Each structure stands twice: as structure tokens, then as C-alpha cells.
Amino acid sequence: MVDRHKSTFISPSQNPSTQDGASSPSPKHRYPIPAGVQPTNCIQISTVDSIRGVYTIDPGLTPPAFLFTQPPHGYQDRQNVLIESQGGNVYVDLFFLPSSDKHKMISMTLKSHQGSASVRVHDADPQDASWIRGPISIMVTASKKADIYIPRSFRGPLQLVTGNTGEVCYSNALKAEVAPVFSRNGVHNCFIGGLPDGEDVIQTWTGDQLTAAANGAINLYFDDEGDIPTKDTSTGHWAQLQRRLTRRVTSPVAPRPLRVFSIRVARILRDIPRPLAFLYLSIVLVLLYDCIFLLITYFMK
């Protein structure tokens, strides 16, 4: 298993922006913070349900220790993002604000033990134009497929592990930036943004890095190849309905046929437009009502 903290590659070139591990995204590839999403840091979410949300991360913030149930020793050095679903999917958008400390690593871990993961990482507009984003370390684990969107400022190694039937797919835009290094038995190592040149000495990479493992496919894109959310929609009635359906899927006391049925319904509701979904639900409810009425009429004869 690859170690995301000790990715071994040729040392960076003498370009200051890459040698210190910091990145400087183009202004056109930075996005405003979504409305209604307050900046936070060191978030930790662990649940048996699916997780869906939009988060703005400010690496310069340090939450007080009393906000954590059991603050670990040296909690100031904890990860910026730790999101874990034991029985559902993970669908998150992460907006990272630059900070005054461009050398500090921004680390995030996202896990879906029984489902798929869709993780989109964006560069957010800085509060100070002189600030630049520090290096980011992304770790994604999914029991099914993983869709990962990285900012165009990303420059560093990708270490990807798939199952026997899984594969790694790049979007056309991202594939043009990929330099393959190693691929064997489900392990795929490559570099985004051009392999560093300069010294021939092998050193530990301190810039951007991505590690992903999935039993299904791993699909990689640039973050601007998908819809960029302008507000947090994870708390609306539609999202609540999807979470309730998914909760039935992951409930250990639910009968297996009900879990399978709930999975299919949740996928249908997620993949089709809302008006059509409500229309389909209305038709199903009407048919169900008719069936119950016919059964009652039959047994009362």
C-alpha cells in the first residue's frame, strides 16, 4: 500500500513556486466562497449514513479544543478535513482558502467504506491577494468507484490503487497533463503538471499529492469540468429525502430486499431532474393506492 505522506519522486526544480510546495492558481481558476457556507477548519465527520455537503476550509483557523469531544494530543496538527461514511456514499465540495503560511500542508482524508465517493477540491478566492495556497494532500478511499476533481493549480504525484475489475480514467483535459510513471497489478503512479527536473537525487516530495484507492473505477477530472456550487444545497428538502432513503439502505435492521429497493430509488432520485422525480413518485403513489384499494375491495366481497 502506498504511503501518501512519503511519495518518492525526483526533487522539484529551482522554480520557487514549486520548490517550497506552494501553488499559485490563476485568478480565473479561483472561485468565490459559496453563499451560506462559513469558513471552518479541522472538520471531522463520521457517520453510518451518506454524507453530502459543501465546505469552505480556512487553514489559518484553529478551532478551540473544547469543541472536540476528545481532542487528541497535539490537535492543532490534525487534518484539515476528515470525512468518513461507514455505510453510505460521500459527495462533497471543498473550497480551500489560501493563507499567510504557504508552506503548511493542507491535508484531507475522505472515506466511503460501503459506497462511492465524489470529491471536488476547489481553489477559493483569497482574502488577501498576496496569499497563495499551500500544498494539498488528498486521500480518497471508496469500496465502489471514486470520482475526484482537482484544481488546475495541482502539481504533484498521483498514486492510485484499483481492484481487479477497476480502472483509472482521466478526462481529456487532465490526461494531457499526466506523465505516467508506473502501472502494474492495479497500482497506477503518475505525475500531474510535468515531471520536475533538475537534480538527480531522489527526495521526499513536499508539494501537492493525491492518493486514492477504490474497488471500482477511479475517475479524475479538473474541478472546473463539473458544476461549481454557488451555495450549500445539502440541507434542503430534496437532500433530506435522499438522506432518508439512504439511511434505510445502511440500516442494519432493515431487511435486505428493502435495502436493495431503497438503493435503486435513491439512485433514480439522484440522477434525474427534480420535476420528473416528483412526477414518478406521484405515479408510484397513485398506483400503490389503487393496488391497496383493489385488495381491500377483493377481500371485502
- Sequence stretches where pLDDT stays below 50 over 5 or more residues: 1-23, 248-255
The beta-strand count equals 18
Distance between the termini: 67 Å
Strand residues, percent = 25-35%
Q: Helices and strands: which structural class?
A: alpha/beta
Task: Please summarize the sheet with the most strands.
Answer: 8 strands, parallel
Helix content: 10-25%
Rg (C-alpha, Å) = 22 Å
Query: How many H/I helices?
Result: 5
Give the overall silhouette.
Answer: globular
Give average pLDDT, whole number.
75
- H-E order: EHEEEEEEEEEEEEHEEEEEHHH
Describe this structure in words.
The protein is α/β, with parallel strands linked by helices and 301 residues long. Helix content is 21%, strand content 32%. The protein has helices at residues 16-19, 172-175, 237-250, 256-271, 274-299, and strands at residues 8-10, 30-31, 39-40, 43-47, 51-57, 81-85, 90-96, 106-112, 117-124, 136-142, 146-150, 156-162, 168-170, 178-184, 187-192, 202-204, 209-214, 218-222. It is globular and about 85 Å long. The termini are far apart. Mean pLDDT is 75; it is low at 1-23 and 248-255. Residues 1-35 are annotated as: Disordered. This is DUF7330 domain-containing protein. It comes from Psilocybe cf. subviscida.
In short:
The chain is an alpha/beta fold and 301 residues long.
Summarize the SSE layout with pairings.
Layout: E1 8-10, H1 16-19, E2 30-31, E3 39-40, E4 43-47, E5 51-57, E6 81-85, E7 90-96, E8 106-112, E9 117-124, E10 136-142, E11 146-150, E12 156-162, E13 168-170, H2 172-175, E14 178-184, E15 187-192, E16 202-204, E17 209-214, E18 218-222, H3 237-250, H4 256-271, H5 274-299
Parallel strand pairs: 2-9, 3-5, 4-6, 5-7, 6-8, 7-9, 8-10, 9-11, 10-17, 11-18, 12-17, 13-18
Antiparallel strand pairs: 1-16, 12-15, 14-15
Helix pairs in contact: 3-4
